[in-house]
Design a protein that fits this description.
alpha+beta, about 240 residues, 8 helices, globular, about 20% strand, eight-stranded mixed β-sheet
Length: about 240
């Protein structure tokens, strides 16, 4: 089975919100475990990431599936729309493999916020400290998943082929950057969605290989009078965002 990567090196913007500034010290402790994949089917589709380095847009589409699937009927963005977004962000030209060079998460986030992917937009995003386990848990619980970048070692690709968890933290053979949707956690580690399937990883693996992570505010998760499945207070969050601006 072919699996492509496609996340470029992290790009940083000093204007990007830090989630720790929004959450505050008084936020309750996160629950021991969260699994936003429970209502989702086993196969979520590869989103063309089996043939293109569009993981940054595929990861976004998997989060849309997670959000909508937890609020009602799961919506899946068509592969053509995902590839169109990849083309718009990264300059990919179909049928010209020399233009399939991946994209930066920050560029996809800005496109997702300003233009949308397959008719789905986010309202804002904030950087999560991927080395802070409590913050990662709080963010995954509140926002229904996290847009995550990792540096994928060969051992992780092998583990995926064998249906095993990503757990080897000593592998320095990095294949490249990859984007995954972090959609659950427990005491042992996290649950990603990548290449259309659930993929477990230990907390030690996350600490070793994750290199960027974002929480997103999306209408697919919470909007208007409809409460988010996590129950967080959108009005208060919007007030906090306004204060930060």
């Amino acid at each position: 089975m072919t699996r492509c990567l496609g996340k470029l090196a992290p790009r940083h913007d000093a204007r990007t919100f830090k989630l720790c500034a929004l959450l505050g010290p008084s936020l309750p402790a996160p629950p021991p475990s969260v699994d936003w994949t429970k209502p989702l089917p086993a196969d979520l589709g590869e989103m063309a990431n089996d043939r293109l380095g569009d993981c940054t847009c595929a990861g976004a589409a998997h989060l849309v599936q997670t959000w909508t699937g937890n609020r009602g009927d799961m919506l899946t963005i068509a592969d053509d729309a995902i590839v169109a977004a990849y083309s718009a962000v990264a300059g990919y030209t179909p049928n010209d493999p020399t233009t399939d060079n991946g994209a930066a998460l920050l560029d996809v986030l800005n496109f997702w916020r300003q233009t949308g992917i397959g008719g789905h937009q986010i309202g804002a995003f904030a950087a999560v400290d991927h080395a802070n386990v409590v913050e990662v848990k709080q963010a995954c619980d509140l926002f229904g998943g996290l847009y995550t970048g990792v540096q994928l070692p060969q051992s992780a690709m092998d583990a995926t082929d064998n249906g095993a968890a990503w757990s080897d933290v000593d592998d320095t053979n990095i294949l490249g950057g990859h984007c995954v949707a972090l959609v659950g956690y427990d005491a042992d580690g996290v649950t990603y969605v990548t290449w259309g399937k659930r993929q477990r990883a230990t907390w030690a693996w996350v600490e070793r290989y994750a290199d960027e992570m974002y929480a997103l505010i999306a209408a697919d998760w919470v909007s208007g009078a409809a409460e988010a499945p996590s129950g967080f207070d959108l009005a208060q969050l919007q007030a906090d965002l306004g204060a930060l601006r």
